[in-house]
Design brief:
This protein has about 350 residues and is mainly α. The chain folds into two domains: about 260 residues, Serine Threonine Protein Phosphatase 5, Tetratricopeptide repeat (Alpha Horseshoe); about 35 residues, no CATH class. Helices cover about 70% and strands about 0% of the residues. The chain is built from 17 helices and no strands. The longest helix has 30 residues. InterPro entries: ARM-type_fold, CWC22_splicing_factor, MIF4G-like_typ-3. This is Nucleolar MIF4G domain-containing protein 1. Pfam families: MIF4G (PF02854). GO terms for molecular function: RNA binding.
């Protein structure tokens, strides 16, 4: 039971909060609407100030909602506009904190997964994929995620997937080759074998052939073979990013090395890639099995060693068992076997 006066106080609090959020949304929306390359530094500065004045959670949610509404439309978004929006996220990711990029990335990936499953007619999937590609271009996310998405698309291999693979490779193919040539080579061979088996089913074989040609051009580092490939706009904006992010952390250190599976299961297994993110859920690892093994190890060692372990402040079962293994092993091979 909630007494009437407390209820009233809660309602006024909720109204106040709603009003504040509405005001914040208006301010952020105004800034995003004016976003362009020349005023990027002033807008990112104003958004930074808003991050200092408001709660991070409110700011992250507001910014993500507004950017998603602006970029995820049923028609294809102009590439330049998309890049500028993602560059803004990348600057805030480096100057405010990695939770900005992480929150945006998670929302984009979840929406992409949802739309891929629902076979949406519009260009929303391409727009979301472009957002992910540019998040990689501007060093917010690691190539691991891009390879995960490509593997997923290659494994399903429908007409729509082939289109998305081509779109992604055109945007970030050469960067992927630079980052991890071996993984790209594996992906290409997987796609080739998939194309050989699926060719009869796919009516539009020219598209498959075109995808394989693009992949071969990537493998041979031949940019001329990819029609419409122009790395200049991304390079230009990367230069701008380097001038706006003065700290040394503008490079690879702030990249989120997170897999597709981790992002999609974030609610279930926690967000390990965000420092200090709170999580209340079921334990990620089932401890029942490991506990019995630890007890078994400790049962074999003498009380003298256990006493030593206590003196050395080995306060958990696993620390004690590691200590006991190290102290009682005959040589390094024996210790290695026991530790395993």
């Amino acid at each position: 039971y909630v007494p009437p006066q407390v209820r009233k106080a809660q309602e006024t609090l909720d109204d106040k909060k709603r009003e504040e959020l509405g005001r914040l949304k208006k301010v952020v929306n105004g800034l995003i609407n004016r976003l362009s390359e020349p005023n990027l530094s002033s807008i990112s500065g104003q958004l930074e100030e808003l991050y200092m004045a408001n709660s991070r959670k409110d700011m992250n949610e507001t910014l993500t909602d507004i950017l998603m509404n602006a970029c995820v439309t049923a028609v294809a978004m102009p590439a330049r506009l998309m890049m500028e929006h993602v560059l803004l996220v990348s600057i805030l990711h480096h100057t405010v904190g990695i939770e900005v990029g992480a929150h945006f990335l998670e929302a984009v990936v979840k929406k992409f997964d949802e739309l891929c499953r629902s076979d949406a007619e519009g260009k929303e999937c391409e727009n979301l994929l472009a957002l992910i590609a540019h998040l990689y271009n501007f060093h917010v996310v690691h190539s691991l995620l891009i390879f995960d998405i490509l593997k997923k698309l290659v494994s399903t291999f429908t007409e729509k997937d082939i289109e998305l693979i081509l779109f992604l490779l055109k945007n970030v193919g050469f960067s992927l080759r630079k980052d991890d040539a071996l993984a790209l080579k594996d992906l290409i061979s997987e796609a080739q074998s998939k194309a050989n088996t699926a060719e009869k089913k796919l009516k539009d074989q020219t598209r498959v052939r075109f995808m394989l040609e693009t992949m071969l051009a990537l493998r041979n580092n031949d940019m001329r073979k990819i029609p419409g490939y122009d790395p200049e706009p991304v390079e230009k904006l990367r230069k701008l990013q380097r001038t706006l992010v003065h700290s040394s952390s503008s490079g690879k250190e702030t990249q989120l090395r997170v897999s597709l599976e981790s992002l999609l299961n974030a609610d279930r297994v926690g967000r390990w890639w965000i420092i200090g993110s709170s999580w209340s859920g079921a334990p990620m690892i089932d401890n029942t099995n490991s506990k019995t093994q630890q007890k078994m190890h400790i049962g074999k060692v003498s009380s003298k060693i256990l006493e030593l372990a206590r003196k050395q402040r080995m306060n958990t079962d696993i620390r004690r068992s590691i200590f006991c293994v190290l102290m009682t092993s005959e040589d390094f091979l024996d210790a290695f076997e026991k530790l395993l």
